[in-house]
Design goal:
The chain contains ten helices and nine strands. The longest helix is centred in the C-terminal third of the chain and has 34 residues. It is an alpha/beta fold.
Amino acid sequence: MDRSEPQVLVSQDGYIKTLTLHQPHKKNAITRDMSVQLLQAVQAAAEDDSRVIILTGSGQDFCAGADLDPSVVADGKFDVTEFLRTHYNTLILTMREMDKIFIARVQGSCVGVGFNFALACDLILAGNSACFSQIFTRIGLSSDGGGAWFMQEKLGYHKAMELMLTHRMITAAEAADWGLINRCLPDEALDQAVAELAGQIAQGPFLALQHTKSNLRAAQKGGLAAALEQEALNQGINFRSRDFMEGVMAFLQRRAPKF
């Protein structure tokens, strides 16, 4: 791969932006340059007119985790802690705090920090070729990229502990059954399903969709009382919005709303 070639490809169609991890000869393993480019692309999306951001990988894989460059591994001066704080942690928190909808489109390998980048998205659709693993302990590492939080939140402490200690590979069907992802689909149906879901969201009442993510985030952080307060605040804004008026009129006139 040409070093001058971008490692994150960015495209936009209407309100839908696609960010593609692009190192297919290494199953889109995350380099330091790629993590910088991905963070920059996500931060740019926060300021543009996109409503839905699809995160995917080039070729047949989503992401094989971190690209373990031997020169970096052997370099005792590389500050891993600072790198994680300024790159992975900032990226994942930005994705979760941004009131736009992230959809992970997954096929093939989705392991390590790549798995956690997918879990940081709001929705995850996977082809049946997808396989998932918190693979860190296989090479003598513990989790990063939020894996400890995401896995425990979705599966509970004991199941998360088992999967993270044993770095077991999880099929897409298992991931769907356990609630780790939204849907497992035939690979050949994945693109259409992602496009339809992204299109539905992008054409919906965007303010209300933003507030839905905001409400869920408040509930995650602060529990029921925080969720109730955030819902009350957001509903007050929604109630005065053009989208709400259009939704009511469309309902009364028995037609599809035009948001």
